């Protein structure tokens, strides 16, 4: 019997249970059993015809879904040469590298493309090792992905425990604490590779003190350590600047990009390095390879995405929209949830709402879905609801979002005793 996409909510959960993951199917039910089938710009549609404003998507959709510039570039490539022989040279990867490096901090000159943020991290760890930097230092609650190497530096017990042993010689230090990092670097010195995010996304939008990245870069230089800046979530305009690195005028040895790098059309990530850091990767093209790395289809998407960010002025729009959204969100959630809200913080369009009680973030996430909005939970912080909206939100999208937050916060508030929300609510 033919399966109709319009009826997908009827048969997709069963196939998930049978062939994919029961846990994932159960999670889907928690969010109303919706099955998404189509997306355009800031919105997606489910099989029962409902529309949702997507301010989640784990930070992929700064330019919304199916940006016309990206789709046109990918379509052209699909009809000419989607995958290369890998024996000859090929223009799309060369053009994508040139376009990407053109918007990166000065001093970054080489790029290795891959398919996921975690793969970009793996390449960076291997690059560090080729320079003798075998001892990894990453930040507490940092998130770098879940392949074995990346998981070793993703400092979260619940994700690491079932898969040990992981990479040896990994130390975690508190994020934002330069003194703690200095102490570890003092004895690991030239053997160290430091991995950090400019703003920790999955940790719940943790913003370090001003000057932190500059201090980390200076410490790494002083101790001869390798510095990998993971901008898989923060890069390409999300923070209202091209990179978090730009906010502090820092050039790391290696910068990582992913998520929105292909405009959400093809899976792509990149390990972007100084010529010095790239080292052995430059001389031996077979040392670190993967079949679809730099495939013309993905590279057309990368070039299209960078063109779209530039032409649509998305970096500036991300900063401006973030400045408008943050105080409004703060006002609305506090009006309903009072003392249950412990912080509303953000940089550009990476915004977190932290709650004092466990469960409120999840409750609000579910309520938002009921009111037509998709947001994110945070993988390393259950108490933080995270918003990663497109920089293309119109005034009416913004109004829809704030109205949904208002009504969802009011419904969530009803689940908690008034006393927990503070004197104004008692
Ligand atoms: N690095 C950071 C900062 C991330 O936020 C993520 C994913 O959320 C990753 C790496 C891993 O990327 P991926 O899920 O594409 O492997």
How would you characterize the overall build of this protein?
With 426 residues, the protein is α/β, with parallel strands linked by helices. It folds into two domains: 141 residues, Aspartate Aminotransferase, domain 1, CATH 3.90.1150; 244 residues, Type I PLP-dependent aspartate aminotransferase-like (Major domain) (Aspartate Aminotransferase, domain 2), CATH 3.40.640. Helices cover 41% and strands 17% of the residues. The protein is built from 16 helices and 15 strands. A hairpin with a 2-residue loop joins strand 14 and strand 15. The chain is globular, with a radius of gyration of 22 Å. The model has no long low-confidence stretch (mean pLDDT 96). The site of pyridoxal-5'-phosphate (PLP) has 15 residues, from helix 5.
Residues in helices, as a percent range: 40-55%
Q: What does the radius of gyration come to?
A: 22 Å
Number of separate strands: 15
CATH architecture of the largest domain: 3-Layer(aba) Sandwich
Sum up the overall morphology in one term.
Answer: globular
Q: Uncertain spans, ≥5 residues at pLDDT below 50?
A: none
- Give the number of domains: 2
The N- to C-terminal Cα distance equals 57 Å
The fraction of residues assigned to DSSP E strands is 15-25%
CATH class label of the largest domain: Alpha Beta
Task: List the strand order in the largest sheet.
Answer: 4-10-9-8-7-5-6
The CATH topology assignment of the largest domain is Aspartate Aminotransferase, domain 2
Mean pLDDT across all amino acids:
96
Main pleated sheet: 7 strands, mixed
CATH superfamily of the largest domain: Type I PLP-dependent aspartate aminotransferase-like (Major domain)
Class per helix and strand makeup: alpha/beta
Bound molecules: pyridoxal-5'-phosphate
